[in-house]
């Protein structure tokens, strides 16, 4: 007898229905006073920390276990000097702040970690240690609360980055745009993307540290590590890629992995030298992969050779 996990299927269908309702029932408002979709229901965009915190304080979530605990942990463990952090400008003489995002989680993770070694940087992922114990606390049926939690994690990352940038470079895997652009492409539904130059492509929270460079890791749908596949191409990838290509801030550069991780890594290095070499101080190393292997091969090790910049 085959066991079918009805509970898991039900949760997935519920989450899908919530997203569909949000995207169909909310009419895009591109000229929404500079902060589009701030009130777009469960897919709303968060433009400041207070917007994120307000979700945890909503009466309908007062019964959710751990809701208040997450806020307490954020304020006392993740960001103990939060008010000072929000109002303090990060020095322009700081070290580089570089973010990696992309359409393929494994490639983005591998490249960002390797690049952090190349530039001798502190590396932070989307799950800061202070919030890791709570990341499975909110279920898909509480989609707004779940999105607010991940946005809270983004601010925790921003705090960690701001604290570190005075001492060394910082590399982060997935940041504010990762959450915001995915929601935007859903909210815009099947309508055309805004024209290049639209305010949509320069959105950024005023109370969040902005990276110097955002690298978008483009893993093409030909699956270059699997030349034979029956998987259908992801229709969302071209749309997401085009949105990133039109971004005006932060400075966004596409890294294509079709020629392998080595080439993408060297491209990132050249861009950092070009755009930050005259304004930031950092040390670079030559790091390559001894073997490309299978994309799931975790035995790949970097070869390092020091190069001062």
Walkthrough of the structure:
The protein is α/β, with parallel strands linked by helices. It has nine helices and seven strands. The protein has helices spanning 6-25, 49-56, 67-78, 82-87, 105-118, 143-164, 176-187, 236-245, 261-276, and strands at residues 97-102, 122-124, 170-173, 213-218, 252-256, 284-289, 302-307. It has a five-stranded parallel β-sheet with strand order 2-3-1-4-5, with helices on both faces. A two-stranded antiparallel sheet has the order 6-7. β2, α6 and β3 (170-173) form a beta-alpha-beta unit. It is globular, with a radius of gyration of 20 Å. The model is unreliable at 9-32 and 291-309 (pLDDT under 50).
Enumerate how many helices there are, as a single number: 9
Alpha-beta classification: alpha/beta
H/E topology pattern: HHHHEHEHEHEHEHEE
The general outline is globular
Produce a short descriptive summary:
This protein has helices spanning 6-25, 49-56, 67-78, 82-87, 105-118, 143-164, 176-187, 236-245, 261-276, and strands spanning 97-102, 122-124, 170-173, 213-218, 252-256, 284-289, 302-307. It has 309 residues and is α/β, with parallel strands linked by helices. The strands form two sheets. It has a five-stranded parallel sheet with strand order 2-3-1-4-5, sandwiched between helices. Strands 6-7 form a two-stranded antiparallel ribbon.
Layout of helices and strands:
Blueprint: H1 6-25, H2 49-56, H3 67-78, H4 82-87, E1 97-102, H5 105-118, E2 122-124, H6 143-164, E3 170-173, H7 176-187, E4 213-218, H8 236-245, E5 252-256, H9 261-276, E6 284-289, E7 302-307
Parallel strand pairs: 1-3, 1-4, 2-3, 4-5
Antiparallel strand pairs: 6-7
Helix pairs in contact: 2-6, 5-9
């Amino acid at each position: 007898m085959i066991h079918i996990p009805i509970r898991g299927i039900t949760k997935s269908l519920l989450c899908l229905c919530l997203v569909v309702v949000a995207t169909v029932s909310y009419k895009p408002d591109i000229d929404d006073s500079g902060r589009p979709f701030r009130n777009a229901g469960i897919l709303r965009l968060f433009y400041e920390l207070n917007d994120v915190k307000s979700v945890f304080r909503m009466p309908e979530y007062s019964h959710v276990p751990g809701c208040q605990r997450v806020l307490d942990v954020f304020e006392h463990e993740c960001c103990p000097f939060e008010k000072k952090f929000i109002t303090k400008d990060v020095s322009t003489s700081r070290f580089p702040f570089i973010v990696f995002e992309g359409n393929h989680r494994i490639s983005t993770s591998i490249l960002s970690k390797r690049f952090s070694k190349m530039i001798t940087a502190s590396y932070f992922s989307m799950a800061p240690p202070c919030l890791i114990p709570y990341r499975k606390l909110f279920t898909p049926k509480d989609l707004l609360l779940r999105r607010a939690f991940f946005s809270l994690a983004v601010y925790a990352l921003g705090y960690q980055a701001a604290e570190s940038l005075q001492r060394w470079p910082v590399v982060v895997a997935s940041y504010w745009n990762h959450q915001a652009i995915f929601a935007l492409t859903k909210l815009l539904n099947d309508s055309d993307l805004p024209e290049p130059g639209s305010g949509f492509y320069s959105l950024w929270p005023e109370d969040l540290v902005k990276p110097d460079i955002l690298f978008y890791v483009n893993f093409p749908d030909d699956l270059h590590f699997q030349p034979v596949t029956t998987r259908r191409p992801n229709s969302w990838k071209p749309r997401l890629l085009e949105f990133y290509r039109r971004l005006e801030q932060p400075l966004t550069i596409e890294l294509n992995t079709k020629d392998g991780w080595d080439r993408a890594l060297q491209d990132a290095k050249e861009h950092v030298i070009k755009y930050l070499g005259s304004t930031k101080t950092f040390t670079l190393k030559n790091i390559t992969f001894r073997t490309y292997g299978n994309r799931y091969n975790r035995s790949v090790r970097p070869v390092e050779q020091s190069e001062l910049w």
